[in-house]
Write a structure and sequence with these properties.
This protein has six helices and seven strands, in the order ββαβααβαβββαα. By secondary structure, the chain is an alpha+beta fold. The longest helix is centred in the first third of the chain and has 40 residues, at about 20-55.
Amino acid sequence: MLSTVDDSDAAVVLPIGEDDLRRVHREVSRFRLRYKFAIDQVATKIAILREEFEQTYDRSPIEHVRSRLKSPESLFAKADRRGCGTSLESIAEEVLDIAGVRVVCPFVSDIYWIRDMLTRQSDVTVLEVEDYVATPKSNGYRSLHLNIKIPVYLSDRTEHVPVELQIRTIAMDFWATVEHDIYYKYEATVPSSLLAELSHAAATAADLDTRMERLRDEVRGL
């Protein structure tokens, strides 16, 4: 790895030694670790809610849970796009989706139940809510996004760490997965015919969610 120092005449390229590389690697690893712990904390909260609900109501409001921690490459690439520099302090301030948790539910009503149960907890701070279920994106994307912050208790301090939480139904998740694969395949330049198909599929998925919830409510009313 090389660094460039500018002077009045020319740029001088200086090598970064192995000791510096190891130090940077350790700093980035420690930085990412607190986000990994935050994911673990959120996953534990969700697991507790899931088990309690299953024991109480004999069904699960959660189909499955996935999590992801941004790689160093993805982290610095997003920081560069945001123009927030490469210092870990500035990245922590500007990039709020380093840690991500996705919860997939059977029904739309489960989305809001999980939201309410999590955000009522005293150690969860809600930073931002984007409800793409009530107001889908123009391409048909639907999901509830919450940026939350939770305390992570380390050996010498407490860090309040942001986590991006996405909550969606099985139909929403299936559509989003296919849409992501299509955009990846076409490097974001998707043919208009496929965009039209995606839009139609989004409407079909939304109709399926509505129908399945209505069927569930009818069965409950028997």
